[in-house]
Amino acid sequence: MTQVHDIRKQFFEEGKTISAIHRETGFDRKTIRAYLAKQDFNQDIVPPAKPLFPSLKPYMSCIDSWLAEDKKARKKQRHTAQRVYNRLKKEFNDFKLSYRTVAGYVSLKKMEIFGKTRAYLPLEHIPGEAQADFGDCQFFQRGKLYDGKYLNLSFPASNKGYLQVFKGENAECLLEGLISIFTHIGGVPSCIWFDNASSAVSKVLKEGARNLTDKFLKFKAHYGFEAVFCNIGAGHEKGSVESKVGYHRRNMLVPVPRFDDILKFNRQLLALCEEDGNRNHYKIEATHNDLFAKDRNALLKLPASPFDPCRYERQKTNGYGKFILDGLYEYSVSPKYADCHVMVRIGAHTVAPIDESIREITVHERLYGALKQSSMNWLPYLTQLSRFPGALKYTGIYKMLPDPLRNYLESLTKSQKGKVLSVIAKFSEQSGFEAAVDTVSEALQYQITDVDSLTSLHSWLNPTLTPLKPIKLSPSVPELQKYAPQLSLYDRVLSKAGERQ
């Protein structure tokens, strides 16, 4: 209207010609003439649209339920318009409408339910859809402080959320966390909103397109969910999980958690999330668990086989049978695999070199952080050295041994070294390498060199209690009767204390 007003003012008040107005405004002459000739400026009232497909009204609720149920199925096993038409003819004897009518309605309804492209978060949250994001946290594992991460999965329709703790924010952590939550809730969200983290997105393209990592594409195809990514710097588009990140930290990670086993702690977190779901929703008069029933009904089914979230890399070992991962972290394999290539399975929590038969050679706890670190598993080395004790001093491995162990081995004869190395390997497998070294340190003080004494010393330093099974008594054994002491008898005797009998 501002433009119309300016054109009419230039013509009627300032006396400019249509050609002059055309040159100044750039509007077409026909448009200018139409604005000048317009007499009625009342608001146009648009009548309400006629209902679409009125003849389908008796069958719409049935069609809607079929298409809504399709959200739980894979894309290739959803209703086509032809299948809907055939079912209507089969299930309703009075159905006489055309295929074109059915196809038109199904097309519109599918766009409403599924939507081929969605560049915004709908105001009304759809059951079965979720949002995912990482948060920062600290925790102690076996007394060591970690600056870790925790994956949050939120269901906006019910405001139910789950979390899993990790030491990093890589692809393995993302996938393992999602798999744990999927397994726990017994299904897969139909759609998950993500940010643009490198764990899933390899490159952000023009006009909002994304190149996804191969691993994430395989994961997405395996579980059949739709992945939607927020615009750059627009975390508010997944506001439910942004809020849930803070809620989970304040309510489930305070005080700073302390645990020994991170997998066990993550299972406890899932149970805690279920307990937390018993609180009332902040808007609706129902608990989060009650509302989550709709989310659960809309979940996709879990696939028949689980997805392997690990990545596999071929690594070159050095002369000590070690390799370096991600440029910072050094892991041991075995003397047998020195100066060769090994395949390595890399998970969120572990790093495991594997042999030709896909069996684990050894397993390391995965290292995280910005500093160079090393993880050494001595068991394969001790086992190998026990077979060739004569070559011990001529290997680079000998220099790597802790001082107490090296000093102890130097005090032994050649025939003793093989047996002692074998029993130290056994100690390492039972109680850990550090406990085995502590045993050797004590043995040096007592000048113990024989295997039997060394084994006794280790058992004394590392006692283990064998749990005893409860004894089942035969039915012939009478039950023990409860004894009620008669204290008055004791009182009678004590009252005569000091009397000469």
Structure description:
The chain has helices at 2-12, 18-25, 29-37, 57-69, 81-91, 99-113, 171-185, 214-223, 239-252, 262-276, 288-297, 379-387, 396-400, 403-410, 414-431, 433-446, 451-461, 487-494, and strands spanning 129-141, 144-155, 160-166, 191-194, 201-204, 210-212, 226-229, 258-259, 311-316, 322-325, 329-332, 341-346, 350-354, 364-365, 373-375. Strand 10 and strand 11 (329-332) form a beta hairpin. The strands form four sheets. Strands 1, 2, 3, 4, 7 and 8 form a six-stranded mixed beta sheet that branches. It has a four-stranded antiparallel beta sheet with strand order 9-12-13-14, with no helix packed on it. The chain has five domains: 2-37; 54-112; 129-297, Ribonuclease H-like superfamily/Ribonuclease H (Nucleotidyltransferase, domain 5, 2-Layer Sandwich); 311-377, no CATH class; 381-461, no CATH class. By secondary structure, it is an alpha/beta fold. The radius of gyration is 37 Å and the shape is elongated. It contains 18 helices and 15 strands.
